[in-house]
TrEMBL record:
Signal sequence segment: none
Stated name of the protein: Co-chaperone DjlA N-terminal domain-containing protein
Residue ranges constituting the Co-chaperone DjlA N-terminal domain according to the UniProt record: 26-142
Pfam annotation, one family: TerB
Matching InterPro entries: DjlA_N, TerB-like
SUPFAM superfamilies for the chain: TerB-like (SSF158682)
Domain of life of the organism encoding this protein: Bacteria
């Protein structure tokens, strides 16, 4: 199952690149996992935050979100470099929704209430690759900090 999804996500041939909305959400979840793992500390706080984001984005139950996160962890571990990974997501996610994707990534980065340089660098890379400029990424970060009650941490 996961091998088929990876093949569809990263196929060069456009006929082999047919993915459905569920596959696209797993790809986004894998990107959340990639950011969470960027600082080599991936713990329960970040895992629960990923599940909350997944549940919020698509109205999943707690169990469904946990299953999607577990699938995303396997996909992320097998996914090629971030450039190809984000290109795949960019091709399938509307620009308007990419702002929310960046906000979700910032939410993961601050899940443990600390600002990690590795996670921040990863988000900056991903934002650029997804076509989100630095200003919009900073606005997303500020919104997340305010929503999380961490306004003075940025």
């Amino acid at each position: 199952m996961f091998r088929n999804l990876l093949t569809r996500l990263f196929a060069e041939d456009t006929e082999d690149r047919r993915i459905d909305a569920g596959d696209a959400e797993v790809a986004l979840a894998a990107l959340l996992v990639r950011v969470a793992r960027a600082d080599d500390r991936y713990d329960g706080v970040e895992q629960r935050r990923i599940e909350q984001i997944l549940a919020r984005r698509r109205g999943l139950s707690g169990q469904q979100a946990a299953e999607r996160r577990a699938a995303a962890e396997m996909i992320e571990a097998e996914a090629p470099d971030t450039v190809r990974f984000t290109r795949t997501i960019k091709d399938r996610i509307a620009l308007e929704d990419r702002f929310d994707v960046i906000a979700a990534l910032w939410e993961i980065a601050y899940a443990d209430e600390t600002r990690g340089a590795d996670e921040e660098s990863m988000i900056r890379l991903v934002a650029g690759l997804l076509g989100i400029n630095d200003r919009d990424s900073a606005l997303a970060r500020q919104r997340v900090l305010e929503e999380m009650g961490l306004g003075d941490k940025g």
